[in-house]
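User: I'm putting together a teaching handout on how multi-component assemblies are represented. Below are the sequence lines for each component of a complex, exactly as they appear in our records. Could you produce the 3D structure of the whole assembly as structure tokens, so the students can see both representations side by side? Please keep the chain order the same as the input.
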Amino acid sequence: MDILRFITAGSVDDGKSTLIGRLLHDSKSIMIDQLQAIEKQSKNMDEGEIDLALLTDGLRAEREQGITIDIAYKYFSTPNRKFIIADAPGHIQYTRNMITGASNSDLAIILIDAENGVIEQTKRHSIIAYLLGIKHIVVTVNKMDLVNYSEDVFNKIVADYKNAAGLIGIKTVTFIPISAKKGDNIVDRSQKLPWYKGETLMHHLENVKLDEDIDLGTPRFPVQFVIRPQTEELRDYRGYAGKIISGIYRKNDTITVLPSGVESRISKIEVASVETEEAFAPQSVVLHLETDVDISRGDMIVNSTKLPEVGQDFDVVLCWMSNQKLVTGNKYLLQIGSRRVKSVIKGMEYKIDVNTMVKEPSPEQGNLNDLLRVKIKTASPIAYDSFTKLKVNGCAILIDETSNSTVAACMIQ
Amino acid sequence: MIPRAIGIVSKKSTMNKHHLDFLEQLESESIHIMREVAGQFEKPALLFSGGKDSIVMVHLALKAFRPGKLPFPLVHIDTGHNFQEALDFRDYLANKLGEKLIVRNVEDTIKRQNLTETKGKFPSRNGLQTFTLLETIEEFGFDACLGGARRDEEKARAKERIFSVRNEFGQWDPKLQRPELWNTYNGKIDKGENVRVFPISNWTELDIWNYILREKIELPSIYFSHEREVLDYNGQLMFVNDFIKIDDGDKISKRRVRYRTVGDMTCTAAVESDCNTIEDIISDIIITKTSERGQTRIDDQVSEAAMEDRKKGGYF
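Assistant: Of course. Below is the structure of the complete assembly, with chains in the same order as your input.
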């Protein structure tokens, strides 16, 4: 049994919250008191039936305005898998929230309203899922009940979407016709869609293969904390604590510490104080080295046969998340894993139109929710991989030193 | 329809050598978060109540930092309404581990700040607890407080970040949350501010119990079936103690009960149960149709946004 983290993209009008409510309801994850609470509110809001959307809108302002402002995390489990849903708002002014939810997702469900077909928003959500490196994309064509469960309508939407996806660069997509409101093809196969021979949504979520998403061939270990008990009996104990973000580490492996470049060998690996011969991603472990090396938080221990890039100048595609403008010359802290360094924006390459993927060269500034490719220089070297090759070591954030806020999500190119 | 609920998962599958099952993944994620706290902050603390979630937190902290000492003290804000069993367990565990325990009492804050006690049949000190928490944070200069809140508990919690920045009054502003991307945590704050960190955000109640079972984690006796004098208040079984008001006509009886969550005696209800083992409890939760907080917390039932409002006021 493992964990699937997925994001649902679409607006309230597409029935996104109803779909989540349906998944929770049909997987028996909604408790009686929660149902009663939303029943009470549904009546308060003069709606005939239970509004499953009320399950996900957790803030007072969201319930008052009937919109989703921020991501809500929802949980359900089946005997095969634990699921974590990042329920993200769909409107363009919440692009940064969708990116936040997408950053930790293995899979994206993109909702299309069968009555409206592929719209600008569908493309935007697909572009974000693609840029954030989400490998599994599921397009659910919802509200099939409102188009008489028509195969033609579904086929046309599939064709339109494939067209748009091709332009974006998305290769594989799973299409499922559903009605979240009626429960068609969510958990149980719908009798009303006999022409559809594929999986139900739940079956797909339960069976999509995730193991290949972890790269076991590229060992990366950012040091978070140095454990030095300095007691009588543990005087010489010096362990480097962190999480293996990719790859496998074995005792006696020759490693390189970055950015210094010093080589050593792994003398001991511990997982929760128990010694082991090897450890792998995403385990949290303690590594010990044969020689005394100067290592502190922010350094990275990698296998010497598989080095990442080490440098100070690189390009990133970033999503700008602040109300302050982004312009060339601005300085920020860049955080990659446990390493934080000063950085400066050296130039703006282009801005990506999030609805069309069209690139506008040399923009003057970046505004809230913009996606841009920029040149960055850091004050000292960082060890990184390109985001498309190794997501876990190609992602970074920018922090505004004066406000302390996180202002950008960066994908290193 | 096939049953969809998850059951008891005590053993991990050994099918794939380089594969972590869901509990191991959750464990590693939580350890990573705790180490980020140790790496990013000068003066962190772990809020510890003697309840199951905070006991799991301590277990995870040991996995993160042993053989070293924990890089933070255990801190308990004692409302004065705590169950004796939880307090005893708190002291026992801190003592057994040789870790520092700091206890601060709501009672003292009430006296010092001339605060008014909540009135009513079940006078909760939940709101007052925030005063003591903020006082304690100030007294020791804590810049990060690790807490055992889970997102599945309540829908305001479902919206909160893992690193939740609070202003100098400890307040949460749900509209000004920092974006939290990948597993990159930004704990940068100004002096006077502090961060509440929730390493077990992604665990559910069942995950906690399955983990307790797998790791053989010790718990206070109150979680298992025992006989107790309770007041049946609209179906909520409240322990008869000095802090609640007994009225004429109250139905009081001895029942076999256990606690599903352990908070204050004034706001935590017991459930009737014969469960003596963790396996029994898990089976019981699976067939239970009521949520953890809905069944046993009368403090969340005040209004639809009770938790959101408390958090905005500086509560956990």
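A couple of points students might notice: Chain A touches chain B through 77 residues (CB under 8 Å). Chain A has three domains: 2-213, 220-303, 309-412.
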